[in-house]
Write a structure and sequence with these properties.
Layout (H helix, E strand, L loop, with lengths): L4 E5 H16 L4 E5 L7 H9 L4 E4 L2 H9 L6 E3 L8 H7 L2 E4 L2 H13 L4 E7 L13 H9 L4 E8 L11 H18 L5 E3 L6 H6 L7 E4 L1 H5 L1 E2 L4 E2 L8 E14 L22 E7 L11 E2 L5 E5 L4 E5 L8 E6 L1 H9 L4 E5 L32
Parallel strand pairs: 1-18, 2-3, 2-9, 3-4, 4-5, 5-6, 6-7, 7-8
Antiparallel strand pairs: 1-12, 10-11, 12-13, 12-17, 13-16, 14-17, 15-16
This protein binds pyridoxal-5'-phosphate.
InterPro entries: Ala_racemase, Ala_racemase_N, PLP-binding_barrel
Cofactor: pyridoxal 5'-phosphate
Protein name: Alanine/ornithine racemase family PLP-dependent enzyme
C-alpha cells in the first residue's frame, strides 16, 4: 500500500475495555465507551462492546449516526451538546444528550415530541475546569425545569474535568457532584439513574477513592491508548499499542545537518535550531502536519523526528531506506485524532486473536507495567 495507514488492533481495544470495565465494576461504575477519536468507527465500537461497555458516547452527531447506520444497538450518548437545530438528529440517533442550556432542552423536547418518544438529558455541571456545564448554584432550578419539560427525561448529572484547565478529579469535586445529586433527588422527588463523573482523567480518583454517587465514566483515551491523560503514563496492564501509524519512505539521502543560506521563518514558524553535526541520513516519509501532530509520534528505535511541514515528515535514520519501505510509529491522543481525521490516511483493522481466549484471561489493570512495544528497527539498504 502506498499511502499512510493507521493499523488498529481490535483485540487490544477489547482487552483494554474489558480490563477497565472489570476494574470499575468493582466500584459500582459503568463504562461509556467513547469513540470520537476514531470518528465513530463501528469496528472499534464493537470491540468496546465486546469488552463490556454498557453504552457508547461520542461528541459528534455525525459519528453517532455512523454507529447507528452500522446497526449498533447499544444506547448512545451525545457527549457534546447539540445546537437547537440539530435536535431532531440528536433525538433520532442518541438516547441521551449531555446538555447545559435550557434552549437546547426545549429543542430536544420538541424534536422528541415530533418523533413520538422521549429523550434523556444529562445536565452538565461546571466543577472547576471551566469548559461546559452550569454553575452548581444553578443546577437545582435548571434540573427542576428540565424534569418538567415534556418528552424529556432528566437522566442525571454529569461533569467533565481535566480538558480545558487540567483540573484533576478529586474527592472534593466528585463529592460535590454526589452531594448535588442527592440534594436534587430530595428536592425534586425523583431518582437520577446516571451520575457521570468524567473521562479517562477520572481513573486515578476512581481507583483511590469511594465513588459516592458516581456510577458512570466516559472513557476514550484510556481504552484506545491504554494511558492516563493526567500523566500520559501507561495504565498498568493495558495495551498502549492498539494503534500504529505506518508511513512509506519517499526519500532517504545523506544530507548536512545545518541549513545553508540566510534563514527566516519556516512554513510553520521559527524552526528549531539546527546545529552542524556532520552528514546524516535524512529520510522523508509521506505524511505531514495536515495528517498528524508530529509531536505525538513515537518513532522506532534508531529513528528520530527532525521536523514536519504540511506534507513531509523529516526523520533521521541510521541507514538509507528504499522508497516505499514503511516506517511504523506509535501515536499519542493528539496524533491519533489527526490521523483518524485525515482523508489521506487509510484505516486497517487487525482482528486475529493472538491467544485463544480460554488460555488467556483478560489482563487485570494496574499490575506491573507493560514493557513498551518492540518497534521495527529500520533495515539498511544493501
Ligand atoms: C472526549 C470526551 C470524553 C472522553 O475523554 P477521554 O479523555 O478520551 O476518556 C468524555 N466526556 C466528554 C464530554 C468528552 O468530550
Amino acid at each position: 500500500m502506498t499511502c499512510p495507514r493507521v493499523e488498529i488492533d481490535l483485540d487490544k481495544i477489547e482487552e483494554n475495555a474489558r480490563a477497565l470495565v472489570t476494574l470499575l465494576s468493582g466500584r459500582g461504575i459503568d463504562v461509556t465507551g467513547v469513540t470520537k477519536a476514531t470518528l465513530g468507527s463501528p469496528e472499534v465500537a464493537k470491540a468496546m462492546i465486546a469488552g463490556g461497555v454498557v453504552r457508547l458516547g461520542d461528541s459528534r452527531l455525525e459519528n453517532l449516526e455512523i454507529l447507528r447506520a452500522a446497526g449498533i444497538q447499544a444506547p448512545l450518548t451525545l457527549l457534546r451538546s447539540p445546537t437547537p437545530d440539530q435536535a431532531d438528529r440528536a433525538v433520532a440517533c442518541a438516547s441521551i444528550s449531555q446538555v447545559s442550556e435550557i434552549e437546547v432542552v426545549k429543542a430536544l423536547s420538541a424534536a422528541a415530541g415530533r418523533l413520538g418518544g422521549s429523550h434523556g438529558v444529562v445536565l452538565m455541571v461546571e466543577l472547576g475546569d471551566l469548559r461546559e456545564g452550569v454553575l452548581p448554584g444553578d443546577v437545582l432550578d435548571l434540573a427542576r425545569h428540565m424534569s418538567r419539560t415534556p418528552h424529556i427525561m432528566l437522566a442525571g448529572l454529569g461533569t467533565n474535568l481535566a480538558c480545558r484547565a487540567g483540573v484533576v478529579p478529586s474527592t472534593d469535586n466528585m463529592g460535590e457532584l454526589s452531594a448535588l445529586v442527592s440534594r436534587l433527588e430530595v428536592e425534586l422527588d425523583l431518582h437520577l439513574p446516571i451520575v457521570s463523573g468524567g473521562n479517562s482523567a477520572n481513573l486515578q480518583w476512581a481507583i483511590a477513592a469511594p465513588a459516592g454517587r458516581v456510577n458512570d465514566l466516559r472513557l476514550g483515551e484510556s481504552i484506545l491508548l491504554g494511558c492516563d491523560p493526567l500523566t500520559r503514563k501507561p495504565l498498568h496492564g493495558l495495551h498502549t499499542d492498539a494503534f500504529s501509524l505506518v508511513v512509506p519512505v519517499i526519500e532517504s539521502l545523506a544530507k548536512p545537518t545545518a541549513p545553508r543560506g540566510d534563514t527566516g521563518e519556516a512554513a510553520f514558524g521559527v524552526p528549531t535550531p539546527m546545529h552542524e553535526r556532520g552528514t546524516i541520513v535524512q529520510t522523508i516519509v509521506s505524511i505531514g502536519r495536515q495528517d498528524v501532530d508530529p509531536e505525538g509520534l513515537t518513532p522506532p528505535l534508531g529513528v528520530s523526528v527532525l521536523a514536519a511541514s504540511s506534507d513531509h515528515l523529516v526523520l533521521e535514520t541510521q541507514n538509507r531506506l528504499a522508497p516505499g519501505e514503511e516506517i511504523r510509529f506509535g501515536l499519542d491522543y493528539s496524533a491519533l485524532l489527526r490521523v483518524m481525521t485525515s482523508p489521506f490516511v487509510v484505516t486497517s483493522f487487525t482482528t486475529t486473536k493472538r491467544h485463544p481466549p480460554s488460555l488467556s484471561p483478560p489482563p487485570s489493570p494496574f499490575l506491573p507495567p507493560v514493557i513498551p512495544p518492540v518497534v521495527n528497527p529500520t533495515p539498511a539498504i544493501p
